[in-house]
Every structure is written in C-alpha cells, then in structure tokens.
Amino acid sequence: MNKKIVPKTALLSVSDKSGLVSFGKFLKKKKIKIIATGGTAKTLKGAGVPVVSISSITNFPEIFDGRVKSVHPKIAGGILGQRDVHKKEAKTNKIGWIDLVVCNLYPFEAVTKNPKATLEEKVENIDIGGPTMIRSAAKNNKWVSVVVDPKDYKGIQKSISGGGISEKDRLKFAGKAFDHCASYDRAISTELEEAALHLRYGENPHQKAFVLKEKHKSFGLPQAKQIQGKEMSYNNFLDGEAALLCLYEFKEPSCIIVKHGSPCGLGSGKTPKTAFLNALKVDPLSAFGGVVAMNKRCGLSTAKELNKVFFEIIIAPSFDSGALSLFSKKKNLRVLSLEKYKPKKSFGKEIAGGWVIQETDLSKTDASKLKTVTKKSPTKAQLSTLALAWKAVKHAKSNAIVVAHNKKIVSISGGQTSRIDAVKYALTKTKIPSGAVLASDAFFPFRDSVDLMAKYKIKSIIQPGGSIKDKEVIGACDKHGISMVFTGTRVFKH
C-alpha cells in the first residue's frame, strides 16, 4: 500500500492546546468527524466546533477523575484495526475506524520542574491513555496518522487539502510519536528513580536528603551495586566519594579509610590485605566507623581483617563469595561493588542565591619539576615517599599535614584552623619514626612549624611555597639539616 489517506474521523486529546481551535475549525471545514476527551472537547465546543465526546463512543463515562476515559476496545480497536483484515470484526463489534490521532501528553516534566510539587502531584501527571493512543496510531501507520506536536498542524492541514496524508509522512509522524513517548517515559523513570533514592537522612537525622543518579557514562558511587546493609545516608555518599577520589590516584593495590570526609588511613602493598593493614596502622582509633575503599578485588583473607573492625561501608571493585559470606553476618554493614570509578571534571555546591562550581583537582605533580629550595637535597628514597605524602595531603581537609616514612603513610592531620596546629596534631597523634618526611597542602606562614618538625626528626618536606616568609622557613630548614622541595601548586580542600 502506498497511497494518500484523507481522514474521516479524528480523535483529539491534547494537554497542550496551542493551535487547537484553529485546527479543529479546519477539520470541521473538511467535514472530518471529531472525537475528543474532557478538556479538549470543552475547548472545541466553546469555539463552536462540533465534537463527539469519547463517552458517547465507549458508552461509558469518564471515571476516577479522568484517570480512565480512552482505555477502551472501541477506541483502541478503532485505531489499531487493519482496514483490509478486520473490517467484518469491527462491524460486528460496532467499532468505527479512527484515521487521525492528535494527542500530546500530560505536562509531567513541567510539573516536576516546580520545586513545590509533591510526588503525588507528579504521579497524577503520568499519562496512561495518551501513550496508548499514540503508540497504537504509530504502530498502525499503514492506515492511521498520528500528531503529537502542535507545530505539525499546518503540515497535516496542507496534506489533507492536497489530497491526503502520504505513507512517507505517516511513517515520519509515527517515528516522532514513538520518540515523544520514549522521552516522556524516560522523564518519568528518572523522576521516580530519584524519588526512590531518598537517603536515610542528611548530615543529621532530622535533615531529609536524596541522591540524584546520573544514567549515562557515569561511574561513581550512585552507580555502585549495594550488595547488603542499611540504606545509604548523605554522609555515606560524601565519605564514599572522598575515598574513591583519593583512591583514583593509585594503580598498585591500595586502600583508603575515610572519616568525616577526610582520609584517616591510606596504604598500599603487594596485596589488598597488606594495603588495608597499612592503611589501618595510620590511625586505628579514627578508623572505627569509617568508610573503606579498595581498588582491587576483596578476597576472604582481606575480609577477615576488615571484619575485625567496625566499618560503616566497604567498597571494592568486586568480592569473593567467601568475603561476602563473612560480611553477611553483619547485617547493617554496607557492602558496595563498583567496578569502575571516574571522577567528574567539575563539581559545585548550591548556596543561597546560586551555585559555586570549580574544576576537580586532578593535578599530578611531576617529580622532575619539584624545586629543591634548601642547601640539602632529598634522597631518591625520600623523594618517592614525599610523592606518596603529597598524593595523600591533596585529599585531607585543610589545613592538612601528612607524615610518611619508607613509602608508608604514618600520620594524617586535617581540618585544623592553623598551620602550626595541623603540624602539632600530625606529629603528636602517633609515634613518628626518625627520618620521616612531611607534606603540607599549603605554605608555612612562619618558621615555627619547621622548628617543631626538627624536634621529631623530620628529614624532608614537600609544600607549595609562595609565602612572604619562604626565606625564613628555608633558613630554618637549613639550620636543622632538613631538605625541602616546592611544588608550586597549592592543594587546599575544604
């Protein structure tokens, strides 16, 4: 079949009523019978366009506040029936053919944009009969034309006036109709998924919170598979993100423990088990109730060590069955698998009146570009350990200090309001081995920090530099026989 069709009967049911009256008057002029639903019928009748109500076709009233009106065999049959095959059956069941369906859907997306709209209001704007009519007409495009966009009214009018709607145009409109329904369904699924992703609570139990989940080409915590445990909270997501972002710095088997958005343990090793044990040694007290993330598969031997400590969350690319069996004994423990993590290029925070947005700090420090500013230069081994400390200090909250020794993190201090306090805390919270190195996320404003480091036998420092007191700080290092390198890059993290 390849012929033009002039519709004899049109079914109109539109949410967007722009252009409706003029289009209805055109159909009237062409003596095309108009069937219409509720609000559409009212608008057309008010403009003097004769309309047959859908209820008079179905012999059944619109019920449940309009929830049920077009879902009926006489409507679906009139659209879907094949004229050359089902003619006799249609006559037997008193079903009249519908040749043109003009329909657009309830304004679901418009409603969801209203911040005051409740979930119930959103759900009530999910169209049921509309998609059914549209999809039916699009499927039966051999006989039926479907219009979902008021912008296409003029084209349809031109086609009808020119002898009918061609097969090519019916196919085009059918494709547009399916796309219209698909976009509509995607909007609904996204909204309902988001509604389902309400979190246990925000930063505190009295604060509501939810997570918005990106669907396409996103590799982050919202895409992780939660294998077991309680629902995630706002804090859980932030701590998990902090852990994964830091872990992204490492290729070798590594583990990070995060508490309150800042690392309290970081370790690497030949195996995930060794990496975890090295991370735990940094601050076992703070690790209690923290979030653990690993970049390699978690086996049973690693799980046995993890199971000795209370953690809120354990994240790994995958888990052995033995590990999962062991974790299952702790019903509240959240166990998440995330095969791939990729940080966003930028992030922001909403504030009163707008947003603040910045690039994610994915900077890498080239060891060859480090500037030695002291008389004494760091050894090769010290440089390697300084590089590790620098990776860690990037992810601790400012003011941040990290102490390391023999390629292992020893102490992490974050969130202090002065540089000297950050140094004091890092050096006093655990036993510092002689010959350790130290990283600072920003410059030292005074020499007092270096004088204190000397008492704890710190032998090398990595810091951005850039203070008006740099000369004084360098002089202090030279006095104490401490080597120091400048990165030229500050790595504050609030």
Give an account of the 3D structure.
The protein is of the alpha/beta class and 494 residues long. It has 3 domains: 9-194, 3-Layer(aba) Sandwich (Rossmann fold); 221-337, 3-Layer(aba) Sandwich (Cytidine Deaminase, domain 2), CATH 3.40.140; 368-486, 3-Layer(aba) Sandwich (Cytidine Deaminase, domain 2). It has 19 helices and 19 strands. It has helices spanning 20-29, 38-46, 54-58, 73-80, 87-92, 108-112, 119-124, 129-139, 153-161, 167-196, 234-247, 272-282, 284-287, 300-306, 321-327, 380-393, 419-428, 448-455, 470-480, and strands spanning 9-14, 33-36, 52-53, 100-104, 145-147, 225-228, 254-259, 262-268, 290-294, 311-316, 334-337, 346-351, 354-359, 371-372, 401-405, 408-413, 437-440, 460-463, 483-486. The strands form 4 sheets. A 6-stranded mixed sheet has the order 6-11-10-9-7-8. A 6-stranded mixed sheet has the order 14-19-18-17-15-16, sandwiched between helices. The longest helix has 30 residues, at 167-196. The radius of gyration is 34 Å and the shape is elongated. The chain starts with 8 loop residues before the first strand and ends in an 8-residue tail after the last strand.
Give the N-terminus to C-terminus distance in angstroms: 68 Å
The spatial strand order of the largest sheet comes to 6-11-10-9-7-8
**Rg value:** 34 Å
Largest sheet: 6 strands, mixed
Percent in strands? 15-25%
Per CATH, the superfamily of the largest domain is Methylglyoxal synthase-like domain
Residue runs with pLDDT of under 50 for 5 or more positions: none
Helix percentage range: 25-40%
* Overall number of strands: 19
Global structural class: alpha/beta
Which architecture name of the largest domain does CATH use? 3-Layer(aba) Sandwich
How many structurally independent domains? 3
What oligomeric state do these chains adopt? single chain
CATH class membership of the largest domain = Alpha Beta
Task: Characterize the overall form.
Answer: elongated
Question: What name does CATH use for the topology of the largest domain?
Answer: Rossmann fold
Mean pLDDT: 89
